[in-house]
Amino acid sequence: MTTFGKILAFLTLLMSGALGFMALSLHALSTQRNEELRVARKTFEANQANVVAYLKEKEAFSQERSTLERDRTDLKTKMEKMDFIQRNATDEVTKLQSLLRLTSDKVQTLTAKNMRLSKDNGDLKKTKDATLMEKNSETNSKTIAEKDSATRSSELEKVRADLEDAIKSRQEMFNERTKMFEEKTQAVIQLTALKNRTGDMERELKRLTLENKKLKETGTIEKAPTGIAGKRNPPTAPLEGKVLRADASGLVQVSIGSDFGLERGHTLELFRLNPAKYIGIVKIIEVNAKDAVAQPVGTLNDRPMAGDSVASQIK
User: Fold this and answer.
1) CATH second-level architecture of 1-231?
2) How far is 231 from 267, CA to CA, in rounded Å?
């Protein structure tokens, strides 16, 4: 073989090796690119699913916030109406007290007149042995006095009946005022709970807004923490009870148990009636037939005390 042939063969071999190396490099690059595309596609699909879930959750929060605003407006209207009724009831009580004072004065006047009439009758009896003319005159005077006494007695009975009706009306007014106070107390508790829930919803909405902004900037989203909706797990049946005991750690013993349908893991609303105050949420950790033990969920607005009320939900 000539020198030129050797050089040509060497160049051919060198080019074959270079082409093989290039083919292997291209195959490796193609495989790596396909793998990166597959990972990127999965990441994109996961982010897209997170965005859809975020939009649904944001819409649900917006709807619940609108519902809470409507409930808040209704409660405010109801409280204004009850304040108006209470002011009218106070005016009626004042008028009734004035009527009772007038009635009492009238009773005293009639009693004095009745005593004077009794004295006059006694004087008439002392003179019945007088002359016939005096006797006839005495008889006529006695008849007139007896008629006057009967009239005054009738008026006295009427006044007594009016007094009894006034007392009965005042008692009904007092009962109605007590009922209005209880309704107002319940409304204040509901409004406080509603304000707390609205604050939680606003904080949750701010968190979702920040996550949406982060999602737009980085293309990733963190897993959302459990919100206020995740804290509540009320019983299906409406339940109401009282706090029997409470310790310094926040544990409370309530007066309802498994006989009422209460189970471990259920949550109850904790509030106080006098003065009206919403305290927070407690979770059942141990259940007996007639009572149960619960612990606070999150931070409470006040320390629980014996006599506080619990309910599956605040109506």
Assistant:
1) Orthogonal Bundle (1.10)
2) 8
